[in-house]
Amino acid sequence: MVTGIVIMKSLSFCFSYPMQFIIALLCFSLKGEAQASYVERSANPTYKTIYIDTVNLRGIVLDHTGKPVPDVSVASLTYYSATSRNLLAKTDANGRFTLDGAKHNDTLIIFGTGRYATWFQNRGSRYVEITLPEIKPAAVSSEADPIVVQTNAINQRKKQKIKFEEITCFDCGPGPMIESQAEPIGGNERLKKRIKQQLVYPEQAVKNHIEGLVKVNFEIEKDGSVVNPRVVQGIGYGCEEEVICLIAQTKWQPAHGQGGIVCPESIVVQFILTDK
């Protein structure tokens, strides 16, 4: 900044010194003032890296019912050499997240807390709403083809005749993200044999002539344990408890994939009384 004093002093030389000297002195004064001002404003400079052709992406992650999903990871599949990593964020309690420096057409992956990995392609938006698909349990057996448990109406502890279908794990997330699916330790045949030997028709159900379908949903945790058994359909008199107790004791080889996978399963058992 050129002050009034500097200008007046510079003009005072006009009558006694050559013009070249006056111009040089004025330039020196301006340069000195500019340097002093620069040093004063830049004593503690701060810097922020800005990536070309990127956006500060904001968004929210919702479940299939429209409710926010907290504590899930949102990652960019683009590798940034400047930071030697991929962009990564976690949703807050309201399901919201921020990815600063994401590409306009970034591919995002949402994973964690037992959910299957979900892909999302951004197409230039600065704000996105990502809705996760509904997680449907795989069917160990179904209502159309249940495991059939039969016993004589008089002989309360008769061995069961049980019908099986192959145990599989459907809808365990996008194919590329799953390295192996959940399966019982020892294979399906060993599980079938265990059910044949141990599942019995409860005495109270036999005495009260109770028949019907029992459907139980459960999940295979990342350590292979059976968790969260839930009765979807029942007939009472200890039938649901018998199925849950037996399933809870089984051990599984967990599904493997990025972010860890909790695999949902279900089982349907049909209780039938014979010789009524």
Summary tags:
TonB; 276 residues; Fusion Protein Consisting Of Minor Coat Protein, Glycine Rich Linker, Tola, And A His Tag, Chain: A, Domain 2; 4-stranded antiparallel sheet; alpha+beta; elongated; Immunoglobulin-like; single chain
CA-based gyration radius: 36 Å
Largest sheet: 5 strands, mixed
CATH topology of the largest domain: Fusion Protein Consisting Of Minor Coat Protein, Glycine Rich Linker, Tola, And A His Tag, Chain: A, Domain 2
* Percentage beta strand: 25-35%
Can you characterise this structure?
The protein is an alpha+beta fold and 276 residues long. It folds into three domains: 4-41; 54-131, Immunoglobulin-like, CATH 2.60.40; 138-274, 2-Layer Sandwich (Fusion Protein Consisting Of Minor Coat Protein, Glycine Rich Linker, Tola, And A His Tag, Chain: A, Domain 2). Helices cover 21% and strands 34% of the residues. It has five helices and 16 strands. The strands form five sheets. Strands 8, 9, 12, 13 and 16 form a five-stranded mixed β-sheet that branches. A four-stranded antiparallel β-sheet has the order 3-2-5-6, with no helix packed on it. Strand 5 (107-112) and strand 6 form a beta hairpin. Helix 1 packs antiparallel against helix 2. It is elongated and about 90 Å long. Mean pLDDT is 70; it is low at 13-17, 30-40 and 155-176. Pfam families: TonB_C. GO terms for molecular function: energy transducer activity. This is TonB family protein. It is a single-pass membrane protein. One of its GO terms (biological process) is transmembrane transport.
